[in-house]
Structure to design on (1057 residues):
């Protein structure tokens, strides 16, 4: 398919600007002027609409395809939250308004949303306060670890290491490194959870904290989580809960009650804001009383008269994490989702997310090697090891699924399982959809026995097939204009 | 009961049977009773209609009807309907990161086009597929410059958004960087002060154009001096101004970042926005964030992939260029649709229109007795006025007249209590501008 | 899997060819195969000092980034600039055209910490 730039025809227009009603044409002195006009495409509105509509049709998405991408919680995004986000009183609101004198009066509705959202998240997770500022999950992680560092600094603790499980997401070590910590990794035991004996050896006085998801990346809830918290707290370490897998435990357990001091939530996972093709996300961070003083500013607080204001008076705050108050329109969508679901609805979410995951797990284990054969939570991890022995790898199976109009599960993550296939159906998928997926997986297995060589030519139904990634990395072409 | 769950009672029953347990509760056995919530006291659920009414009620508590002359890096530009219609396609917004290129060509090609458009805009060689927002993008640029130069001193021009400067300080507080801020002289970067500080330990100079006061500069001379000492120049820019202004690429900047909100994104009370970043090709491996590259599929057909992933956290873990995982794909998409629609001519006209309206407002405001419009350097669509009284009080009084009059500088700059920056976009009509001037006159009496 | 006879090897799969106080360094056929198609190598600068088994250069393939360690201590005299243009030379010719750098050896005793081709062959068998 052509690029939008390749559809350009000199002199064609796609949009008419408002007419000028001021009788002057101002001039920029020549030394400050651009030499050549910006070479944006010259296309009509119809060209633009057809082009991007055609591009959209080259995507798989939740609206069009089953999308069991493990660890990403690709649930259906209710349409009404889009209506909510477009409500004018919010969409047009300038972020600097509350920084004017008396300006907070202009944004009471927005501040009320942030304040209520905070209370809801506190009740859902058992944390004492939340900041809405972090703009994505990884950004939330950074915020949390920075607060951890501020805590240790304030207490005069000399800390050097953050402990993570071997199944940890790559953002954990990357985040720790930015804040100046080193990572210590602990292996999983035979049950797929952190090995307590090994952990005991790794914890020292220099342990700043421990970062885990629970349930973990293998979809297993660690029943010993409180023991772990005790061990970490014994050296004044901080327990960090990575909320990536929160969709499994709503109403069943709260990180704040089981020993965690700080956590982030990926709103685009659990609270159903759209993934957007890779963002924007939103990663609110919750803390217990221990870390409240270090929260980034501003916080939204409420006066006795019931009005809301931006409070910058946190003298020990780590500072400004983002320009403003977080990805507001994403927060607004998630807020609407939580209000709609209510407490019982959220419990139902986890109930069905876990039910669906176990159903797929128990059906698939007939043909695929299950990394840990036990009850799982919101997702399960298989290994394509049997198929790989026939020359058909996880990647090949994923390409086969694409031809069956199913978005592949996460493959090759977690790294601790060879040829891993990580499946998270979410609560919004029906049994019929899952049955079709299971059948497709069985057919893939069948084909791997009979004609393993076929897989290498897949996918065959997509506009393009497997890309030459080596060429992409060697002959770097990331800008159309570099080549013209 | 939440309506987005498909399972019927029969489905539940059938599935439990396959699993071999008698109830959903059994699936949660690993969560022991002592793990259960101490409280889970949430309100009852609501219907879609009820939630919408609730949200509208909250929205009505915002004064969104004020006529905005406030900018500060975030501007009230018109968003063409086609932009909103196209980004509302579920195929785009309910997809995820394009991990599987064969079924993500839509997102991938759009992001390649976005990167190309950003390069065209800034006259730089390569761009990434976006970062969170303008402030965090600038912080990432500082880290990138430090990685490239292996130096740890950074010079920040006082004309760089004070919000961005605060963010940079927050992020680097645990690392050993030395920051020095230089003053703005007659609205422009102080060559003298920057020149004094530049040395072989300096990683980067951070500049902004137009700067926070709205003034325009040509930083070519600073770039030249910096390069003589191996110092990189980071330029933060306002994209709409680049329809007319000398580009950071032409000035020789090494890393360019900016806030892309004005490229078709609503103000949204602070986000989501769009951080863009561009650099020279030789630094591409030091650049954070996702990068989309063109390649061929095994049949020789052009296609697009996530490339140079070995820089990223999921592979390099603690040695990654950044901890960033996601970008803001949808916002990048929105902006490339916007840039395509405006096109070569339309974009230039848009910049001219902003300039003209701002110039008109400037001339009219200047007529008010006691108000001084700073004119020592040229401006684009935002400019600084000096009022006879505390600007924050004036802005407060203007609210009652129905205007967000501008942004008083006293909040972020010492001794500038009487100053205010005023922004005028293509959306402000002559009538609104004249009404604004009249209101200002009345307030100042 | 080719193991060049005349070279010494490390457990991290680098090779070194020592001649008159100087030495050429590269990675073994086994290493290039394990890394897959190499897309980029970040070469050190001539004049840099390296330590035995210390980080030396990093190479990238499509889905991995790996460090390569110096088999011996010394000062880098020259690097293989051809790799900037074509890092795939390491894959195509790991023992010849894909050499990485030449160093001036600072401590020839360190040789005793390295494996001969025969020992390296056995080592590879033992790691499977």
């Amino acid at each position: 398919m052509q690029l939008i730039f390749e559809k350009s025809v000199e002199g064609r227009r796609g949009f008419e600007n408002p007419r000028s009603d001021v009788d002057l044409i101002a001039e920029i002195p020549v030394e400050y002027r651009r030499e050549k006009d910006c070479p944006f495409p010259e296309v009509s509105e119809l060209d633009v609409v057809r082009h991007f509509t055609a591009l959209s049709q080259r995507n798989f998405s939740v609206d069009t395809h089953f999308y069991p991408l493990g660890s990403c919680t690709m649930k259906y995004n209710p349409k009404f939250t889009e209506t909510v986000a477009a409500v004018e009183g919010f969409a047009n609101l300038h972020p600097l308004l509350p920084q004017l004198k008396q300006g907070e009066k202009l944004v009471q509705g927005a501040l009320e949303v942030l304040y209520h959202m905070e209370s809801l998240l506190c009740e859902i997770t058992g944390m004492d306060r939340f900041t809405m500022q972090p703009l994505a999950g990884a950004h939330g992680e950074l915020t949390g670890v920075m607060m951890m560092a501020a805590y240790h600094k304030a207490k005069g603790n000399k800390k050097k290491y953050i402990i993570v499980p071997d199944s940890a997401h790559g953002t954990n070590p990357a985040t720790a490194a930015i804040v100046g910590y080193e990572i210590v990794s602990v292996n999983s035991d035979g049950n797929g959870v952190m090995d307590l004996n090994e952990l005991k050896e790794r914890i020292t006085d220099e342990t700043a904290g421990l970062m885990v998801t629970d349930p973990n990346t293998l979809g297993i809830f660690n029943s010993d989580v409180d023991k772990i918290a005790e061990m970490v707290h014994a050296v004044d370490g901080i327990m960090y809960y990575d909320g990536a897998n929160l969709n499994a435990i709503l109403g069943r357990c709260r990180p704040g009650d089981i020993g965690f001091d700080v956590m982030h939530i990926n709103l685009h996972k659990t609270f159903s804001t759209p993934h957007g093709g890779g963002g924007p996300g939103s990663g609110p961070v919750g803390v217990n009383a221990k870390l409240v003083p270090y929260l980034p500013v501003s916080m939204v607080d409420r006066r006795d008269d019931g009005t809301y204001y931006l409070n910058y008076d946190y003298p020990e705050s780590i500072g400004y994490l983002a320009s403003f108050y977080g990805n507001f329109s994403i927060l607004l969508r998630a807020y609407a989702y939580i209000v709609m679901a209510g407490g019982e609805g959220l419990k139902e979410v986890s109930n069905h997310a876990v039910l669906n995951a176990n159903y797929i797990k128990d059906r698939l284990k007939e043909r695929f090697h299950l990394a840990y054969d036990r009850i799982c939570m919101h997702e399960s991890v298989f290994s394509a090891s049997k198929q790989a022995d026939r020359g058909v790898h996880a990647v090949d199976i994923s390409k086969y699924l694409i031809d069956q109009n199913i978005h592949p599960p996460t493959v090759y993550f977690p790294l601790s399982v060879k040829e891993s296939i990580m499946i998270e159906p979410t609560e919004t998928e029906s049994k019929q959809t899952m049955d079709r997926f299971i059948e497709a997986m069985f057919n893939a297995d069948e084909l791997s026995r009979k004609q393993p060589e076929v897989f290498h030519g897949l996918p065959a139904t997509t506009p393009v097939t497997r890309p030459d990634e080596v060429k992409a990395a060697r002959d770097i072409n990331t800008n159309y204009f570099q080549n013209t | 009961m939440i309506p987005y769950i498909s399972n019927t009672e029969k489905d539940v029953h059938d599935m439990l049977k396959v699993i071999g347990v008698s109830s959903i509760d059994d699936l949660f056995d690993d969560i022991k009773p002592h793990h259960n919530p101490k409280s889970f006291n949430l309100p009852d659920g609501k219907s879609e209609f009820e939630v919408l009414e609730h949200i509208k009620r909250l929205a009505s508590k915002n004064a969104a009807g004020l006529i905005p002359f406030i900018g500060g890096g975030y501007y009230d530009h018109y968003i063409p309907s086609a932009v909103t219609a196209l980004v509302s396609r579920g195929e785009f917004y309910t997809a995820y990161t394009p991990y599987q290129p064969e079924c993500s060509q839509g997102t991938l090609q759009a992001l390649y086009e976005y990167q190309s458009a950003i390069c065209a805009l800034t006259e730089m060689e390569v761009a990434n597929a976006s970062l969170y927002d303008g402030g965090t993008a600038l912080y990432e640029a500082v880290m990138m410059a430090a990685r490239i130069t292996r130096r740890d001193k950074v010079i920040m021009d006082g004309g760089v958004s004070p919000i961005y400067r605060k963010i940079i300080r927050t992020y680097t507080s645990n690392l050993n960087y030395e920051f020095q801020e230089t003053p703005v002289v007659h609205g422009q970067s102080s060559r003298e002060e920057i020149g004094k500080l530049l040395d072989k330990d300096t990683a980067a100079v951070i500049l902004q154009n137009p700067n926070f006061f709205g003034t325009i500069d040509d930083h070519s001379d600073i770039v030249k001096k910096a390069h003589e000492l191996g110092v990189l120049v980071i330029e933060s820019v306002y994209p709409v101004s680049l329809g007319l202004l000398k580009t950071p690429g032409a000035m020789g900047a090494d890393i360019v970042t900016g806030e892309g909100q004005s490229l078709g994104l609503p103000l949204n009370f602070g986000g989501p926005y769009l951080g863009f970043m561009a650099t020279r090709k030789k630094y591409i491996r030091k650049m954070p964030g996702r990068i989309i590259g063109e390649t061929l599929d095994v049949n020789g057909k052009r296609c697009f992939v996530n490339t140079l992933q070995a820089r990223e956290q999921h592979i390099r873990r603690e040695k990654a260029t950044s901890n960033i995982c996601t970008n803001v794909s949808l916002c990048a998409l929105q902006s490339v649709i916007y840039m395509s629609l405006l096109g070569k001519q339309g974009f230039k006209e848009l910049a001219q229109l902003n300039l003209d309206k701002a110039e008109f407002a400037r001339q009219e405001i200047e007529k008010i007795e006691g108000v001084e419009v700073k004119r020592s350097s040229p401006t684009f669509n935002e400019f600084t006025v000096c009022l006879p009284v505390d600007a924050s009080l004036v802005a407060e009084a203007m609210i009652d007249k129905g205007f967000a009059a501008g942004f008083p500088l006293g909040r972020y700059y010492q001794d500038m209590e009487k100053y205010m920056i005023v922004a005028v976009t293509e959306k402000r009509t002559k009538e609104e501008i004249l009404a604004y001037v009249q209101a200002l006159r009345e307030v100042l009496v | 899997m080719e193991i060049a006879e005349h070279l010494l090897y490390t457990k991290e799969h680098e090779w070194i060819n020592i001649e008159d106080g100087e030495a050429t360094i590269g990675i073994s056929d086994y290493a290039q195969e394990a890394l897959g198609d190499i897309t980029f190598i970040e070469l050190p600068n001539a004049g840099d000092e390296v330590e035995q088994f210390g980080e030396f250069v990093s190479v990238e393939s499509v889905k991995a980034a790996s460090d390569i360690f110096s088999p011996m201590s010394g000062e880098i005299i020259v690097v293989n600039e051809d790799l900037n243009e074509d890092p795939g030379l390491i894959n195509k010719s790991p023992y010849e055209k894909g050499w990485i750098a030449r160093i001036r050896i600072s401590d020839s005793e360190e040789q005793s910490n390295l494996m001969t081709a025969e020992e390296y062959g056995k080592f590879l068998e033992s790691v499977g």
User: Anything to note?
Assistant: Chain B has three domains: 9-53, 67-78+346-444, 81-338.
